[in-house]
Amino acid sequence: MTTLLAFSGSLRKDSFNTRVLRALPALAPAGTQIALFDISDLPMYNQDLDGETVPEIVAALRAAIAEADGVIIAGPEYSGSYSGATKNLIDWASRPFMAGPIIGKTSMVIATTPGPGGGKNVLPATSGLLQALGGKVVAQVGAAAIHEKFAADSDTIIDEEFAQQLREGLAAF
Ligand SMILES: Cc1cc2nc3c(=O)[nH]c(=O)nc-3n(C[C@H](O)[C@H](O)[C@H](O)COP(=O)(O)O)c2cc1C
């Protein structure tokens, strides 16, 4: 069994990136389990909060990443790069110093935009963060015009090319 932990770098309720994450279990190979971890309530990283005790959600986040075989980050592209939420998640998970659970973790990065950019800037930026922490990024999947890639009123992906890229990314774990 391969267990993957998925995070959305968009906190909004109807986020396309979050919807892509919800679509992943149907595209995953047999024996792969994907859990979505909600980071909406993660406080902004503050070293004063990061002592012998940490906020409950931080402890839960670190334990969940430590237990997972890999992580998936689907982020929006904000101002040509990753969102603050994505960076904040990585900052919390990168500590304790030299022992953060995301250090060396295998990952997949996804970025989708309704516009034509398709996450071309945020994919390498997010991958660069994970690689700087010693992780291997097994796949980077982007998509433009993401609003056209779902079935009406559901999180099912109907664009076969995009679905196939996601399948291959998941299989790469
Ligand atoms: C603050 C902000 C900055 C954005 N910057 C970009 C950008 O640089 N490139 C881009 O393609 N889209 C940009 N967008 C549009 C997002 O791609 C779009 O809002 C997308 O739906 C966000 O992802 P989500 O649906 O997962 O929330 C930006 C949106 C916001 C709110």
CATH domain class:
Alpha Beta
The CATH superfamily is known as Flavodoxin domain
Identify the overall geometry: globular
Bound compounds: flavin mononucleotide
Order of helices and strands: EHEHEHEHEH
Going by helix content, strand content and strand pairing, the class is alpha/beta
Q: Would you write up a description of this structure?
A:
The chain has 173 residues and is α/β, with parallel strands linked by helices. It has a single domain (2-46, 60-171), classed as 3-Layer(aba) Sandwich (Rossmann fold). The protein has helices spanning 16-23, 56-67, 84-93, 122-132, 160-171; strands spanning 2-8, 32-36, 70-75, 106-112, 137-143. A five-stranded parallel beta sheet has the order 2-1-3-4-5, sandwiched between helices. Strand 4 (106-112), helix 4 (122-132) and strand 5 form a beta-alpha-beta unit. The longest helix is centred in the middle third of the chain and has 12 residues, at 56-67. The mean pLDDT is 98. The structure holds flavin mononucleotide.
